[in-house]
Amino acid sequence: MKNMKTWVAVLVIIAAVAICGWYAVRMPSGADVQKEPTVMETEPTAEPAVQATETPQEAVEAKMEADLLNHEEEQAELMTIEGEIVEVTEEYVIIKDAELGEVQVNLNDDTVYEGIDREELAAGQFASVIYDGMMTRSLPPQINALSIRVDAITGTVAEVQEDGRVLINRTDLGDQVLVALPEGVVLTVGETVTIYTNGVMTMSLPPQVNAIGIVK
Fold first, then answer.
1. Angle at 94 between CA 91 and CA 100, to 5 degrees
2. Are 120 and 113 in contact (CB under 8 A)?
3. Which of 6, 39, 79, 97 could form a disulfide with 83 if both were Cys (CB 3.0 to 4.6 A apart)?
4. Could you tell me whether strands 176-180 and 126-131 are parallel, antiparallel, or unpaired per DSSP bridges?
5. Mean pLDDT for each 10-residue chunk of the chain (216 residues)?
6. Exposure pattern of 21-32 as b/e (b: 16+ CB <10 Å)?
């Protein structure tokens, strides 16, 4: 009886060892246990910088500035010649400029006439011509007139100043004007003259002009 109990105890121990071994084989090791993926915290993506846009007022100011620059560039291209008209035709006039000599000034439908009508142009007058700066290499050189101005003042010499300027009593308006004469021109008190200018006159008293030509 005692021996039988002993054998039963041995069998129980053997069975327990076998079961433990079987579980040991079936259970995964710590290295085999798949870990849950770690969720990494990422910084939020920075929002793209918003590009500044012009306000309506800034856009208007920018356009005005661009227009002003363009206007200044256009003005910088304009040139002027001044001199006596020596020939007049239907299509052009010949002007004798002090530096360039005779220049053919072509007239067109867009030419602006100031101080005179187209039909009143005549040889012996002095004119101021504005053109676009383009001049041919022909003889005579040719330009296209944007505007042609003939501005005449008629009167008598009332005074000759020490610096050579003369005070003219105008016969058309009855007032006086102080005139700076072209180089080499001399007038005396009492002479009746026609003075051609470029149309620029100061606001002083008396007003002052620069003469581009004198006809006695």
1. 135
2. no
3. 97
4. unpaired
5. 55 59 50 46 52 70 71 68 97 96 97 96 97 95 98 96 95 92 94 96 95 95
6. eeeeeeeeeeee
